[in-house]
Amino acid sequence: MTEPFATFLLFGATGDLAHRMIFPSLYNLLADGLLPDDFLVIASGRSDMSDEAFRKDIKESLPKFLPADGYDDAVADRLAAIICYQPVAADKAEQFAALADRLDGRLDRGVAVYLSTPPSLFAPTAQGLAQAGLITPNTRIAMEKPIGKDLASSKQVNDTIGALFAEDQIFRVDHYLGKETVQNLLALRFGNVMFEPLWNASAIDHVQITVGETVGLEGRVSYYDGVGALRDMVQNHVLQILSIIAMEPPARMDPTSVRDEKVKALRSLRPMTAEAVKTNSVRGQYTPGAVGGEIVTGYADELGKPSDTETFVALKAYIDNWRWQGVPFYLRTGKRMPARQSEILIQFKPVRHSIFGRDGKHSGGGSGLEPNTLIIRLQPEEYIRLLIMTKRPGLERQVHLEEVTLDVSLTAAFAGQRRRIAYERLLLDLLAGDQTLFVRRDEVEAQWTWIDSIIDGWKQAGMKIAPYASGNWGPSSAIALIERDGASWHD
User: Fold this and answer.
1) How far apart are CA 458 and CA 466, in angstroms?
2) Domain map of the chain by residue range?
3) 183-219: per-residue pLDDT in tens?
4) For residues 277-298, average pLDDT
5) Which among 237, 362, 400, 490 is annotated as catalytic?
6) HEC states along the chain?
7) I want to staple 255 with a disulfide (CB 3.0 to 4.6 A). Which of 24, 109, 436, 475 is the partner?
8) Each residue's pLDDT tens digit, 444-468
9) Is residue 237 flagged as an active site residue?
């Protein structure tokens, strides 16, 4: 194993993501002694600022985004001491030259470049680095989503970056892959003998994936309108979760094996047609309502004009392969939902023949027999629950069954361990060069191929947005989407 890279070059360092996630993650890694010796953070933004002014800004922001019991002034001072600031605008070659001077003598120990910038700046920033001689075999580049807004623009971004970096130097970030519980899906499926034999169409009735947000636009007006929930959430987070649930067992736990199987699952998604979107998709947009007891305005009010952008989407997807043929995957995500939660539900089929009977028509009497359900909660709390049937205690001759829950609270089971920010794992892997939890080019393009089929279907079918009051789980048509199949959303 090679030594982890010793320099972290962050573009977009004055932005919200850097302050909320990246610098708190670097703080935690430094506090735990997980960063290399002689580690240097070069923060870059368009603002003109001295090293001291930027360090002061970071020291003031850290207590806002770290838990009170997880903040220590001494560690913040140590972090500030290894940060320097270099203003760089993507179109100014002389600023890239000044950046190269700052990096003089450090290229041999590796430079990890992180683009926390609008996607429109990915290509010019990479080209500026190249012209300044900062791209070598010891340079890696990480890019925040979105990688394009459709398949064509995604290919354009990947072609531009790919002309300057080899694929094994490119780290496409989806922060959901840094979440402990998402990684735990791999452990659950492939580290336990009881699940994998049942993880297929013979035993599973359907799968639900829900990613709900309580927030509205929250300062993302310029980005979000015209993008919408399908491109913003389904194309990346939801489909990454789906690919881990649906993938075949990889030969080993390495970047190539894991990502090979994920991309196979994504390529097996049945494309949507104009006819299919009418019954298998719902577009929604939030209107005024109440979330968590607080009155909130509608999307159009926040935006200041009417818009056809969806803030909610529900989909019924099929994976056309041997393992999943005929099993519907119900996907939904939206803003201004009643709760902030990310959850996977695996609904198993009922037992083939009940010896306990139903509704008192057989010898066993009314049993209340229900099919098993596996619920994997990713946030805010993290747990795995398996609903199983057991006999209700008593001396009755008829066997009465009741559903009970086998509950593994990961938060409680590992109560002594601090909950990690997803970016901590991703930053460590970037420095170490491990791409397992990053998205490969063919994955991104397989995701966009399916998303484009839905967008094209919407256009051809003239799909309109359905209003839903803030604080609800989307439009009533989203409930109908699943209930006409005899199932219901797990709220």
Assistant:
1) 13
2) 7-144, 177-417+437-483
3) 888 888 898 888 889 999 999 999 999 999 999 987 7
4) 95
5) 237
6) CCCCCCEEEEECCCCHHHHHHHHHHHHHHHHCCCCCCCCEEEEEECCCCCHHHHHHHHHHHHHHHCCHHHCCHHHHHHHHHCEEEEECCCCCHHHHHHHHHHCCCCHHHCEEEEECCCHHHHHHHHHHHHHCCCCCCCEEEEEECCCCCCHHHHHHHHHHHHCCCCHHHEEEECHHHHCHHHHHHHHHHHCCCCCHHHCCCCCEEEEEEEEECCCCCCCCHHHHCCCHHHHHHHHHHHHHHHHHHHCCCCCCCCHHHHHHHHHHHHHCECCCCHHHHHHHEEEEEEECEEECCEEECCHHHHHCCCCCCCCEEEEEEEECCCCCCCCEEEEEEECCCCCCEEEEEEEECCCCCCCCCCCCCCCCCCCCCCCCEEEEEEECCCEEEEEEEEECCCCCCCCCEEEEEEEEEHHHHCCCCCCCCHHHHHHHHHHHCCCCCCECHHHHHHHHHHHHHHHHHHHHHCCCCEEEECCCCCCHHHHHHHHCCCCCCCC
7) 436
8) 999 999 999 999 999 999 999 999 9
9) yes
Q: What pLDDT does 194 receive? A: 87
Strands 289-291 and 383-391, sheet pairing: unpaired
Q: How much of the chain, in percent, has pLDDT values that exceed 90?
A: 73
Average pLDDT over residues 71-78: 94
Residue 304 has pLDDT above 50, yes or no: yes
Sign (positive/negative) of CA torsion 227, 228, 233, 236?
negative
CA–CA dist 164, 230 (Å, integer): 30
What average pLDDT does this structure show over 285-300? 94
What number is the average pLDDT over the span 288-298?
93
Longest pairwise C-alpha distance within the chain: 87
pTM: 0.91
At 119, the amino acid letter reads P
How many CB atoms are located within 10 Å of the residue 473 CB? Answer: 20
Burial class (CB in 10 A: 0-12, 13-18, 19+), 330: buried
CATH topology of domain 177-417+437-483: Dihydrodipicolinate Reductase; domain 2 (3.30.360)
**Could you tell me which residues come within 8 angstroms of residue 200 by beta carbon, excluding any fewer than 6 positions away?**
323, 324
Q: Residue 236: its pLDDT value, please?
A: 92
Assigned token pair, 263: 């991309």
Tell me the per-residue pLDDT of 35-59, one tens digit each, with 9 for 90 and over: 998 999 999 999 999 999 999 999 9
pLDDT at 65: 92
Does domain 7-144 match CATH 3.40.50.720?
Answer: yes
pLDDT at res. 418: 65
